[in-house]
Amino acid sequence: MKPVVIAPGDGIGPEVIPYAVDVLKHFHPEWEYIPVHLGYECWKRTGDALSARTLETLKKADLILFGAITTPPDPKYQSVILRIRKELDLYANLRPVFGPGFDILIIRENTEGLYSGIEWQEKDRACTLRLVTEAGTRRIARFACACAKKRRRHLTIGNKANVLKSDAYFLQICIEEAEKTGISIDKKYIDALVLDVLQHPGRYDVIVTTNIFGDILSDAAAYLEGGLGMLPSANIGRHLALFEPVHGSAPDIAGKGIANPVAAIRCVALLLKYAGERENARIVEEAIQAVLKDGIKTPDLGGDATTERVGKAVLKELASRRQDS
Ligand code: IPM
Ligand code: MN
Questions:
Q1: Which of 34, 136, 138, 238 holds its CA 20 to 30 A away from the CA of 130?
Q2: Other C-beta atoms within 10 Å of 94: how many?
């Protein structure tokens, strides 16, 4: 029995996560599901967005299913998800993007770079330190190489080494690790890479890059799948993993019941794959594809279905598949 922590969070998080949980329970009713409260709503209620107790629960989990959190523009308020990524040392952020003729795995370094948290304000300027360490780079490079080795043995290193010393360092270490693994590599400046991924997605396999570049590249690449409502992510550490839709809390549509639950449900596919259940992960993807093919889509994809309609349709697909087999 695996303990799975469920953290719906804010905004559309609590609207989409219940369907993801139902999908997971379809395969694993026997697992232990532990709900936790965190985020902005929790902060408003309790004065604490991420309590020490919740953090302990997260650290003890094997698997975490996370919705989204709102970060208010208050200088005293620290982003909860960034704190969790750091505290749990979830160093690899995987964002798969696939469709007809392309299958890309974006791997974003998740603990340092421009998200180092080392920043300060002076009288007439503000500074953020972009930190690239050897240890931090080697582990993400090794992780990316290991993924590439299991896929099409090709790694693209997104960088801005022509301008930034920290990126020249990142690039050099990635090349060293790729050479050790024996996979082929491509170095590509991040600005040109964003465009090329959109124009020629079929050319790419695994892409590794620094934190902020991976953040931007993955949102741009979501375009290939119809938008942010479709993209799941896995934040992987040494002993545990957190799965989170890329879309965020979307306050503009929160409470309307029209958020796309596909990204959250796809998080379950990533979770199952991480847990070694490739076949179950494939079944979840198939069920999603079948529902979309039937035209059951939320407004972000041009449809008029509600979150509930899409969520329930996926569950129904899964139920009929179980009867098939
Ligand atoms: C993401 C998000 C986060 C990030 C925000 C919410 C802190 O945009 O997961 O891509 O910048 O990493
Ligand atoms: Mn982002």
A1: 238
A2: 25
Cα 91 to Cα 50: distance, rounded to the nearest angstrom: 20
Ligand 1 proximity of 97 Cβ (cutoff 6 Å): no
Out of 103, 186, 196, 219, the active site residue is 219
Query: Could you give the CA distance from residue 51 to residue 260 in angstroms, rounded to a whole number?
Result: 29
**What are the tokens at 182?**
């024996």
pLDDT class for 77, splitting at 50, 70, 90?
Answer: confident
Please work out whether the CB of residue 81 comes within 6 Å of at least one atom of ligand 1.
yes
Superfamily covering domain 1-90+237-325: Isopropylmalate Dehydrogenase (3.40.718.10)
Instruction: Kindly give the pairing relationship between strand 184-189 and strand 154-159.
Output: parallel
Question: Residue 72 has what pLDDT?
Answer: 82
The CB of 215 under 6 Å from ligand 1? The reply is: yes
| pLDDT score, position 74 | 81
- Nearest-CA neighbor of 21 among 254, 310, 264, 235? 264
Alpha carbon nearest to ligand 1 atom 4, residue: 215
Amino acid at site 228: L
Domain coordinates in residue numbering, the chain:
1-90+237-325, 91-233
